[in-house]
Amino acid sequence: MAEIILHHYDLSPFSEKIRLALGLKGLDWRSVKVDPVPPRPALDALTGGYRRVPVLQVGADIYCDTEIIFRALERLAPEPTLYPTGEGIAKALSLWWDRATWKPAIGVLVHHIGEHLPEAFLKDRKENYLGYDISKPAMAPMLPAYVQQLAALARWLSSMLAENGPFLTGGRISAADITCYHSLWLLRANCGAEMIDAQLGLGPDIADWMARVAALGHGRPAEMTPEAALAAAGAAEPAAPTLGDNDPSGIAAGTRVTVTPDDNARVPVTGTLVAADTQEAVVAIDSPAAGRLHVHFPRAGFEVLPAAGAGASRAA
Ligand SMILES: N[C@@H](CCC(=O)N[C@@H](CS)C(=O)NCC(=O)O)C(=O)O
């Protein structure tokens, strides 16, 4: 099997989800550190322009978004599974948590450490990622509301732990735990665990649960340069897609499509649809630096649409 390569940066909570999943599965992987602020030319050459982090690479197959990275890891190493009680609850909880907590978590984060964030980071996040100003003064008026939101939602985690414990969906850790952990990890690691627990009213049940999730560790990473990752993609052929049920959207394989996140960083990736099911779309791109690549996206949270003037392409 080709090496598992993760493009990520330390402070990225979405990357922490994947590092923990690699820990759960006890995998060897290559760690490519990217700059927290673009440009990231080597990564762009692999993704066709998708601009968020993390990205997983296995040879010439590129996985964008943690949801589809989880799916890829499940295929590569089915046990221990990320979905011990089935996929539906864990995936639904994950999408809810990611979307409901991201802005409030950033609001609380910048309240504590906003003065240390570089101007270039703030400018990039406003103009190219979130579309709003995350500087401390800009977010300050809404701080009480951000605290209220996080406190309300975290209480639901407590209730799940009381009902199902020791993990959110039952006796074994799942993708839901790893996901709901990540924004609280961001806050507790950067602002102080005691401070955040007091501010959000988090009890020892949450702290203990977070310790159980952290105990997964990160598997066995070994550093790799972006150039070596590009070379690995260039030397490989994309794998034949192994998808599940039928895609109901009616866009035929071979069609030129754009794939765009429906929430933030709405940079479309344009390529040729190779295969799709209800959960995943696989798009071929021809990268000048790495040749033919298959870029994989989740369907939930993304829009796959025929590109302007699209038709079937012989490249597919
Ligand atoms: N839905 C995406 C969200 C990823 C995301 O927003 N990641 C953050 C970093 S934690 C990001 O890309 N920030 C802007 C950047 O790094 O360019 C996923 O699950 O992977």
Structure write-up:
There is one protein chain. With 316 residues, the protein is α/β, with parallel strands linked by helices. The protein has two domains: 4-80 and 221-306, 3-Layer(aba) Sandwich (Glutaredoxin); 87-214, Glutathione S-transferase Yfyf (Class Pi), Chain A, domain 2, CATH 1.20.1050. The chain contains eleven helices and ten strands. It has a ten-stranded mixed β-sheet, with helices on both faces. Strand 1 (4-8), helix 1 and strand 2 (28-33) form a beta-alpha-beta unit. Helix 1 crosses helix 8 (175-191) and helix 8 (175-191) packs across helix 9. The longest helix is centred in the first third of the chain and has 27 residues, at 87-113. The protein is globular and about 55 Å long. Glutathione is lined by residues 12-14, 36, 51-53, 65-67, 98, 129.
Average pLDDT confidence is: 96
Tally of contiguous helical segments: 11
CATH architecture call of the largest domain: 3-Layer(aba) Sandwich
This entry's quaternary arrangement is single chain
Strand content: 15-25%
The level of helicity is: 40-55%
Biggest sheet layout: 10 strands, mixed
How many β strands by DSSP?
A: 10
Which strand order do you get reading across the main beta sheet? Answer: 5-2-1-3-4-9-8-7-6-10
- Based on secondary structure, the structural category is alpha/beta
The number of distinct structural domains comes to: 2
The helix/strand series, from N terminus to C terminus, equals EHEHEEHHHHHHHHEHEEEEE
Uncertain regions: pLDDT < 50 for 5+ in a row?
Answer: none
Q: Would you tell me which CATH topology of the largest domain applies?
A: Glutaredoxin
Rg result: 20 Å
User: Could you tell me how far the N terminus lies from the C terminus, measured between alpha carbons in angstroms?
Assistant: 24 Å
List the ions, cofactors and other small molecules found in this model: glutathione
> What gross morphology would you assign?
globular
User: CATH top level of the largest domain?
Assistant: Alpha Beta
